[in-house]
Design a protein that fits this description.
heterodimer; A: 367 residues; alpha+beta; six-stranded mixed barrel; B: 226 residues; Rossmann fold; six-stranded mixed β-sheet; four-stranded antiparallel β-sheet
Chain lengths: 367, 226
């Protein structure tokens, strides 16, 4: 029956185009939407993920999200954290959310102060220029550089200070803002001595959750395991984008499924005489159903393959046009969406099957 | 000769809500043996096609019964009648009625495949029949590209490809000119008889009577006196 279904599809190119196109559009939409979502999630923690530590400590009530945190940890609090049993190495992240100005343009950045000899807090990757800024220098992310139209040697203003771009980095675009890097001394001169976060390494055998609990109890701070810290930095994307993605997936599946169902149903209705003829000759209901289901299956397979191919093309093309957006298409997302589309196409084929079951074989004498 | 097909006092009345019942076939009895050709003639509306549909298990009679090789066909449920139609009964309809998106060869081979033949065997049987019917050169053509005579010969090949016990033809010459019609029906009879099948042809073309071993004349659903 697969051959029969294939012939039926092959000889009806317009109908095939409608069915396959509907499935392909739905798949592409869902995969791209899912890919944008995953890209956003990934971007939010691209750089924070590199910060070494099992527990992340911030000022009580300030929140763990870097791009909206006002956390400041006083020296006494830092000492109290270091004194908690089970605490190993402690890394301080000194940084602030600031407005960066270049001519008429402004951008929100999380300015990170890094020590010249310390790898902690360094950029994820350097595209060009220095990897460690000198005082009065700044390293900016490639996305921010693209937005502001700046390159090496250009000057940017942060409050009253003027900084020279000494390096372009990558992986520091967190969509809602970017991470930029300056010499830690520059922050101290700007009155930003207190670190915002402490990244605490647990001694061997100490569970991060238990250590976070101890730190909270001992120092009146917020302390969460690193996984929770990363999840909180992604939370805003989950809260805002995920419902939109869910709606998009449901609408895409419904529209794609409806088009396939209507196309197959119309085709089956139009070919009622033909199915009646096959029933009269003696082909069983199962064979006729298989023919229709095979058409749904083939439309689903072809549409899913085209849709995934289109989504991959978009995933490659979008960042070239707009570097802020990264579309991540993992194999699992593509396979699950394609499988979902095939199921929708098969379910859509069930509608015409009902019409087939009611077919009267004696119809053949009335055509 | 063994009796292939038998109708015993079959009756069928058409009923639709709000309309008077219309008796289509009234107490018709018919028996056709293997290698025998029966021609059923009569004017339009005399019940020929309804009788043929009952003989082929497409309709269940309201009364009476139809036997195929001695076993009752008419009392079986539709799936069982469908299996018998596929393997034991061949149909030739008016205008050929071929599946539009399949080639002539595929139309014939489809039935053999559905009846259980292996792909290669089905293809070989289809090719052989199309050759014997003189349309092998049109095997790859879609039905739309066939002349009415060619389409009807392909339909004959389809009816015979599963080596049926009975072949039923409904007005096989209705849309053909006299020569084409005669050639098609003669080929149908020769091949059906060669294969040991019983052939029943329903027609209002009285010239086909010459091909018959027995003739049944229907009028108002009843067998008319000879």
């Amino acid at each position: 029956m697969l051959g029969f279904a294939w012939q039926a599809l092959r000889r009806q190119p317009a109908r095939v185009a409608a069915s396959v196109g509907a499935v392909a559009s739905s798949v592409m939409l869902v995969v791209v939407a899912g890919g944008v979502y995953l890209g956003l999630l990934d971007a939010m923690v691209g750089w924070p993920r590199t910060l070494r530590g099992d527990v992340v400590v911030s000022e009580a009530g300030s929140g763990a999200m870097l791009l909206r945190s006002s956390s400041r940890l006083a020296p006494a609090v830092q000492r109290a954290v270091r004194a908690v049993p089970g605490v190993g190495a402690v890394h301080a992240l000194t940084g602030r959310l600031v407005w960066l100005e270049h001519g008429e343009h402004e951008a929100l950045v999380y300015l990170v102060g890094i020590e010249p000899g310390d790898a902690f807090g360094a950029p994820l990757r350097v595209v060009v220029g220095r990897s460690r800024p000198a005082p009065h220098q700044i390293l900016v992310d490639v996305v921010l550089a693209h937005e502001l139209g700046v390159g090496l040697g250009d000057r940017l203003r942060v409050g009253a200070a003027t900084l020279t771009v000494a390096g372009i980095t990558a992986g520091g675009n967190a969509v809602l803002g970017t991470f930029a890097f300056v010499h830690r001394g520059a922050l101290l001169l700007g009155g930003m001595q207190a670190p915002g976060f402490l990244f605490v390494e647990a001694r061997d055998g100490v569970a991060p959750a238990a250590l976070a609990e101890r730190v909270r109890a001992a120092a009146d701070v917020d302390a969460v395991p690193a996984d929770t810290f990363l999840a909180e930095n992604q939370a805003i994307v989950r809260q805002i984008v995920l419902p939109l993605i869910a709606v998009l997936v449901v609408v895409s599946a419904a529209v794609g499924g409806a088009i396939v169902a209507v196309t197959l149903w119309t085709a089956t209705r139009e070919r009622r005489a033909e199915y009646g003829l096959l029933a009269a000759i003696g082909l069983p209901d199962g064979a006729l159903a298989a023919a229709v289901l095979c058409q749904g299956l083939l439309a689903g397979l072809l549409g899913a393959a085209l849709g995934v191919a289109g989504a991959l093309a978009i995933a490659v093309g979008v960042p070239l046009v707009e570097p802020r957006f990264v579309v991540v298409v993992p194999l699992g997302l593509a396979v699950e969406t394609a499988a979902g589309a095939i199921v929708v196409a098969l379910v859509a084929a069930l509608a015409p099957l009902r019409a087939l079951r009611r077919l009267d074989p004696a119809l053949v004498f009335r055509v | 000769m063994s009796e292939r097909l038998r109708a015993d006092a079959v009756e069928k009345t058409w009923r639709s809500p709000g309309s008077a019942a219309v008796p289509a076939v009234r107490g018709v009895t018919l028996a056709v043996a293997a290698r025998e050709t029966a021609v059923v003639v009569g004017p339009s509306g005399s019940g020929k096609t309804t009788l043929l549909a009952m003989l082929g298990g497409l309709l269940r009679p309201d009364a009476g019964r139809v036997l195929l090789d001695g076993a009752e066909l008419s009392g079986l449920p539709e799936p069982a009648r469908r299996r018998l139609r596929l393997r034991r009964i061949g149909f030739v309809f008016q205008r050929g009625l071929l599946v539009e998106h399949l080639s002539a060869h595929e139309n014939v081979a489809l039935v053999a495949r559905a009846a259980g033949a292996a792909r290669a065997d089905a293809a070989a049987r289809a090719t052989s029949l199309l050759e014997r019917l003189g349309v092998a050169q049109r095997a790859a053509a879609p039905p739309a590209a066939l002349s009415p005579g060619e389409a009807q010969r392909v339909a004959v090949a389809r009816a015979l490809v599963a080596s049926p016990a009975v072949v039923l033809a409904d007005e096989p010459t209705a849309h053909l000119d006299a020569d084409s019609g005669a050639r098609v029906v003669r080929a149908l009879r020769d091949l059906a008889v060669d294969g040991g099948a019983a052939l029943v042809v329903v027609t209002h073309d009285v010239r086909l009577v010459a091909l018959a071993d027995r003739v049944l004349r229907l009028e108002d659903g009843r067998v008319a006196p000879a």
